[in-house]
Design goal:
With 310 residues, the chain is α/β, with parallel strands linked by helices. 26% of the residues lie in helices and 23% in strands. The chain has 8 helices and 16 strands. The longest helix is centred in the last third of the chain and has 17 residues. It is globular.
Length: 310
């Protein structure tokens, strides 16, 4: 199997397109000055506009250096250091920088897939980081996507290495989630599905009943990333419940060490929960697949038991 590409930036500007791999160094500077790692000709860019630095070896943080015209990520102004997700679009003037990364393994490198694999769709950076680090610490690879189209790339029936479990943020799919879960149940009946949510008002009781009817038993609230150290037992319980779905065991010592690392990471950075990006995938899926995906049948309502007269 060919390993995925390493983390990289795809830079599109008036002068053309270039790619820069984010490997072999801890920091990349961005701006008009020739002294920068990434030199931009955009007149809206400052001489020393921004920097991208690695955090804990495998995460990447974008920092705007108080530039004159500022930076945008997925259409939102960059105010604080921001952890980058796969598919994030950085905008500086008319220049667009797309952040790409592949599968992440427990070794911290983008390499071959281990035996067990999680495919997650998370719109919030902090939630994705927490789940990612917990799984990686237990030797489970993670594919973290931020858009429906890219998710479909990993769920083709002909794929030799389908994920063992889907971890889906309900707010990314919104109204389409039930249809998607029903489609997954038809195509991949043995694949486990776990749903997470950040807000509860939009989740009606009827909606939750339909989720249960699809055989989705794990429905978990988002982590309170401001107080991880005070929620050890709660987080351990949620994580252990997910591990059991893929026949994996929780290592208490590894779990506690990872939670401390996460506390350090989230205290060091202000991770902004951004709306999910809608990036163009590197290789577009077949149009017929997209069409069938968009026309997935609606999930059937839970069947009622018929009453029989004695």
């Amino acid at each position: 199997m060919t390993p995925p590409d390493p983390p990289k930036l795809i830079i599109r500007s008036d002068t053309g397109t270039q790619q820069i791999q984010l490997v072999d160094q801890p920091l990349w500077t961005v701006g008009r000055s020739q002294m920068n790692s990434i030199c931009l000709s955009d007149p809206c860019a400052s001489r020393h506009h921004a920097k991208i630095e690695t955090v804990f070896d495998r995460h990447f943080c974008y920092v705007d250096l108080q530039s004159r015209n500022g930076s945008m990520i997925n259409g939102h102004p960059v105010i604080t250091p921001t952890l980058l997700q796969n598919g994030d679009r950085i905008t500086i003037g008319s220049t667009e920088i797309l952040f790409r990364r592949g599968i992440v393994t427990q070794a911290g490198n983008d390499t071959h897939q281990p035996q067990k694999q999680i495919l997650t769709l998370q719109g919030a950076a902090t939630q994705g980081i927490i789940w990612q680090e917990l799984f990686l610490s237990h030797g489970i690879s993670v594919i973290w996507e931020t858009g429906e189209t890219e998710l479909l790339h990993h769920l083709r029936p002909q794929n030799a290495n389908l994920p063992n479990l889907l971890l889906l943020d309900t707010e990314v799919f919104q109204q389409r989630l039930l249809e998607f879960c029903f489609w997954c149940r038809q195509q991949f009946p043995r694949m486990q599905i776990v749903l997470t949510y950040r807000e509860t008002p939009h989740l009606s009781l009827d909606w939750q009943k339909q989720v249960a009817a699809l055989g989705i038993s794990c429905f978990l609230p988002a982590f309170d990333h401001h107080h991880l150290s005070t929620q050890t037992q709660v987080i351990q319980g949620r994580f252990n419940a997910v591990l059991q779905l893929i026949s994996s065991s929780l290592n208490p010592e590894t779990f506690h060490t990872t939670l401390k690392t996460l506390d350090q990471l989230l205290n060091q950075l202000s991770a902004v929960d951004k709306p999910a990006a809608d990036p163009n995938p590197p290789s577009a899926p077949d149009p017929d697949e997209i069409t069938s995906f968009l026309k997935m049948p609606s999930s059937p309502p839970p069947q009622r038991r018929q009453k029989h007269n004695n």
